[in-house]
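Suppose a classmate hands you a notebook page containing two proteins, each written out with its sequence and a corresponding row of structure tokens. How would you begin to make sense of it? This section walks through that situation. The first entry is reproduced here exactly as it would appear on such a page.
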Amino acid sequence: MSEETVPQQGGGEARPKGLLQQMEELMAALNADLSALDADLQAAGPQRSAHPAVEERGVEPPEGAGVV
């Protein structure tokens, strides 16, 4: 049972979407949302790089944690 077929509604000629196609569409939508979020964050300007409690303890953030 690798892929189940869904009965067509409305008598159209369109095939039901396969799981791979659905995943690709979801990933494309997720990438678009993440790009928009990144643009919003970049437009907000420089912010503090670490949570205040982390700075008080003198703990460095992990490498690659978004600190430029």
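The notebook's second entry, a different protein, reads as follows.
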Amino acid sequence: MTVEEFRDVVALWHVNETRDTDVVLAACELVVAGVDGPAVSMLAGASLKHAWEEVPPLMEDALRELGLDHHEYRSDGGREEGLRLMARRTLAGEMSPRELAEWVHQHFSHDLPEAEELAALRDIYETLEYYPELSPADVDADVMAEVRRITS
């Protein structure tokens, strides 16, 4: 486990794509990989049975120790971390532009300002018959432009 991989686990945690126990197990992998310190070790030592209550208060110190930004659980900042991760995956070809737009709409609807344009593009995908001047490839290109903005 690298610090970057741990950052991704935390980003997924913020958007309910991973569980508190996954964060604890990822912290354990960091310790095994030799990336440890007092705060990361405390997070790795959290109870899996009670991870839902033990993980949130341990996150800030562990993330700071790793040089990563901390956001309150499910805050807009944390959800934006999840958005950036999924945008990076789209750039890497792991998701299609349409899949990303759908994911954004499912997770944030139109409630996360940073993701609003992607949510709107998902709506365009769903109503392309009303936009004769647009093709799915045009919307894909708009999604990718937004992905580049989010990941820059």
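A careful reader of the second entry would note: Residues 57 and 127 are 44 Å apart (CA to CA).
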